[in-house]
Automatic annotation (TrEMBL):
It comes from Jannaschia seohaensis. GO terms for biological process: proteolysis. Its EC number is 3.4.17.19. It comes from the Bacteria. InterPro entries: Peptidase_M32_Taq (IPR001333). The active site is at E255 (proton donor/acceptor). This is Metal-dependent carboxypeptidase. The keyword Metal-binding applies.
Amino acid sequence: MPAYDDLLSFQRVTEALAQVAGRTGWDQEAMMPRGAARQRSEEMAALEEVLHARRTDPRLGDWLEEAHAKDDVADANLREMRRSYARNQKVPARLAAELARVTSLAQGIWAEAREAEDAGAFRPVLAEVVRLRREEAAHLAEGGDPYDALMQDYEPGGSADAMAEMFGTMRPRLVALREAALAAPPAPRLTGHFPKEAQLQLAREIAERFGYDFARGRLDLAVHPFSSGSGLDVRITTRVDEAEPFGCLYSTIHEVGHACYEQNVAADHLLTPIGKGVSMGVHESQSRSYENQIGRSEPFCGWLYGRMRDLFGEIGVASERDFYRAVNAVRSGYIRTEADELHYNLHVMLRFDLERALMRGELEVDDLEEAWNARFEADFGVAVDKPSNGFMQDVHWSIGLFGYFPTYSLGNLYAGCLMAAARAELPGLDDALAQGDPSQATGWMRDRLQVHGALRTPAETIRHATGAAPSAAPLLDYLDAKFTDLAK
């Protein structure tokens, strides 16, 4: 297999360089001094030029023609390399480098403009990002749907029509459940002061309980929490509000779900095309199941209630049941990352519709804020009061991640399938969760899904883990049972 061996040897270097680029991006969001932004944008563009040259090297085409798979691993690596090579051949090197440069700059501009509530300062660079991504989409789509073309970066095989159908299936039951939950007596709220260091201490403890390996990772602060890296270096971030600890704790659990997927991929796949998560939808299945179906479950909340009282004293909630209700409170809030499980997908639907219109040229950046505000008030019944609570709240558009948002809801759907299968095989799970031990569920995810990386396509990954094709029914049934009980 000389062609395959040469191909994989070449690809390992490309994968290693991509990890360096990713770590540089992590540094920009977590550690980089603010004044370094312009230089960093040039560094990111230079790295992208090198990566693009490797990803379009003519030798790849020759090797891919000659290479044959000797087993399932080789077959999967060739599948991923062929897909990557075909995609990168369509994008000019100039455009790839310019996208890297502009999105690096835009991330810093977004962060400062968001803090200052200055939409005008952000709008010009966002317009440039949109222009470049439209150009890229036109190259990739070759006359087809530009949004579908961009989605392939995050969910190979996905399409806007399939996402719209999924949302159409989910919306009526979500809205009905939301209305019932909002009509019930309001959930209690935590009160008190929750010092930063105590929150981070508890966040680290919870991360370890969920299986995150700090010998191969670290926890830092960022404006918008994220996970970065794979294999032996996987880093996570969170944020802290000393008046509201759930943002820190549940953002940490969410990012740990992503990180554990990357840390637990089999060592043999390290720095190969399948040595990482297969798609963002499958990735989100891990973060959303860790955060919601495990971390917000009643038994785990019972344990967390005790730990929070140990650390913070009285927190304004009188019982484990009331704490569980507080964790899962249903409220029409502005912020997607802080939304309850019923509102969350409605947040994603809004973003999906707006970004699809942007990429199709049906909406321009100058009209985006007004379109957002009108849609938000229609969907949530609340008027947006400031840009950081509106179209500037998420980092995704500033760094060009158009086509990413629907994978959050797809991840919720996958998580419903996975957790239904896990619970059928783990009858003692709730008893373990009541002791603060999620290892039965996280171990099941590791063995059934995470170790395999991108060995299978996204849908095949879920089918292999659960024995059934992906479906929205398990998620909707789970939400129905949970929030009907909470409304009592």
